[in-house]
Design brief:
11 helices; 4-stranded antiparallel beta sheet; alpha+beta; 14% strand; 2 domains
Amino acid sequence: MPARHLETGIARVLGNHLRKPTLVTDLVRDITASEVLDLQATLRQVANDCDPEGAADVWAPLLRRADLAQGSILLRLDRKVMADRLGIAPDRIDSAARRIPASFQMQRRGVEVRIILGAAVPKVDPVLAKNILTAQKWYAAVKAGSSFGDLAAREKTTSSRIQQMIGLAFLAPEILDQVAAGNQPVSFTSEWFKRRQLPADWIQQRDVVDGI
């Protein structure tokens, strides 16, 4: 497992958790109204120190341990270090609030492994979405009687590219929905499709894409 990618994901989960506005009242026992604002400000600074692009040495002491399970990871804050950062006694750190559960996924793209920690925000692939729309337009033109050569000249591209990409016009509805929502497998890109044509059958298409 690529350690740097895992560290980056953990730092992001940790920082996002520590930025939650209500965390301070869950984390600090017997907190008084006069303490809330100062402790929130300190907690934000601690969260800012959890820079995914920065050195792990800064934020790693905040964690006592990280437990990986199928599809999830559980981070546990170190009571003493957390209390020291906040400037309070260790026994004021709530035990239950020290636990930070998050989802954990590993996705492969060839030899590359992508680690997704926490609630991944779907991201639409603009190139893939554009190429699907273009392929649908090309297919409509071919149905209307245009040859690949005429279409290539009009679109300022090559016949071979049209032949490579026009199959995107025949994607299963479920795959189109995934692309529109940004939920398709990370490796299902225009470049992947250009190198590997999908079968015409929609059920077979889904099996191939799900197995990427």
